[in-house]
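Quick one, T. Sequence first:
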Amino acid sequence: MNSTPDPSTSSGTDEDLSFYSARRQRRIRITAWVVIVALILVGGGSALLTVLLG
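Structure tokens:
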């Protein structure tokens, strides 16, 4: 399983929780950019196939 402690079960300070929040925001942002790029590539690829195959 995941070795990082669950912030909801620990008695951490606000600093600990903000660290988890910053990591979560970074992960969400990276995932969003990957999805956007994938959609652009797939859309461009399908348009190219349509042009080539008529």
